[in-house]
Amino acid sequence: xTLKSRSNAYWDKRAMERMDKYHHSADSTxxxxxxxxxxxxxxxxxxxxxxxDKFAKDGDLSATExxxxxxxxxxRKEWNATKRKIDKxxxxxxxxxxxxxxxxxxxxxxITRLEALKENIYLQSKIIADxxxxxxxxxxxxxxxDAYYRTMFDIQxxxxxxxxxxxxxxxxxxxxxxxxxxxxxxxxxxxxxxxVLASQITEVITAGFMAGTGTAKMARELxxxxxxxxxxxxxxxxxxxxxxxxxxxxxxxxxxxxxxYIFRAVLDKRTSTICQKQDGEIYKVKDAKPGVNMPPMxxxxxxxxxxxxxxxxxxxxxxxxxxxVTGEVELxxxxxxxxxxxxxxxxxxxTNRVVIIETQLANKAADKIQYEKYKLVYGKELGAKSFxxxxxxxxxxxxxxxxxxxxxxxxxxxxxxxxxxNGKFSDKEVRQxxxxxxxxxxxKIDGSKPLxxxxxxxxxxxxxxxxxxxxxxxxxxxxxxxNESNPNIEFxxxxxSKMERKGLTKEQAYQDIIDTAGKTNxxxxxxxxxx
Length: 531
Fold this sequence. Notes:
Elements: H1 10-55, H2 63-70, H3 76-83, H4 92-102, H5 113-159, H6 170-178, H7 186-210, H8 215-255, E1 260-264, H9 273-278, E2 282-284, E3 304-308, E4 318-322, E5 329-333, H10 338-349, H11 351-362, H12 364-378, H13 387-396, H14 398-414, H15 427-439, H16 441-444, H17 451-472, H18 476-485, H19 491-502, H20 506-516, H21 522-527
Antiparallel strand pairs: 1-2, 1-3, 4-5
Helix pairs in contact: 1-5, 1-8, 5-6, 5-7, 5-8, 7-8, 10-11, 13-14, 14-15, 15-17, 17-20, 19-20
């Protein structure tokens, strides 16, 4: 089509408005899926609470009691109640897979409470998958149709010419929906994501029972895992929305006989490097390929395209951009691409200022984790009551930040264990904390007590620090492996072991326990760069 636009400012504005609307429409899909996650969380919490209500004494279960209870068989009535939850699933393929799994020969004769708990978690993950696939499919189909007709309307309005065009065939909608554009269809990604979720939740619940964790703590950890799942679902829905909308718009370009399009990135501080480089590039419609020259270029991509009718249609056109320093929206020439806009910001505010803001945004996720850790270590001494203030301190108050960073491990080592430390620190940070506390054992032993009592004190402190250190590790898989391979042992067992291995008398074994209480494994220390 060779006709030119009547309104030069029209094209970019309408393209961005369309994409913004599609993502707002996706909010309802995200809300539906989030609700499915919340319902599953409630069910799993309820099943966990049932076990505590039935078997716990004074609201508590020891690790030994938990193991015995979880390994007991459940009644056929209880198992059938779990299986009936499959009725909530609508997708035939998911329902069939669940029925085959829960009717497997392994569950015919004897089902333990642990197995039932695991299967209920898996079942809940697939109830989520069922809701997510259904909602995403419906939402994407709506986006495809909406994008096609909105783009055709905008083309006609922009050109000032009305023309007949064909309705989007159902087969085209189906083709876009089924296209595994990223190498895997979104339904497969949903299945994989919920498989991972089921595995992680199973770990939280079973490890919680085995460690004698209370329901409140398990509920908190379950909520954290669910939030990760919700984020993965949100990411998938947003990215698929961008693809479906852009794929439908390509169909409208073909129908309107438009041969070329311009790649348009959002001009703000959140724009990815890959979309920055693509901004303003012109491509043939017939060569459009998602992830290569057509959005989405990455997860959470917000970029879009607009029809291109030749260089003269860019004359006088303005586009919106958000100044990352002031936060104000401004109008710039449409011929200016992201790189040119970025250069103009450096000239306006100074390179360092803009770079710092971009770095803050790029490091936001990691900085939030770091902020929570530093709050635990420093408390009020940190001097940053909010995450925004923490980032400002980190990137703009270098001397203060370097001082906090250099002292952080020393301060952590001086602190006693708290439950809020659980799962918050790296292997190296925890190891240094453990070494510092082990070295201090000798200073805490009551030397006025008999030798055996002193050895018992040393042993108890050593075991306590070992347990606390493993709770502090954010590498939960490694922590669980250590609990399995190197568990705490009873005092009398340790005495006997030392007598047999070292040929010591009982009194000598007591002294050896005291002497070695502050020593740690040099190989482990060396592996972590601490020797």
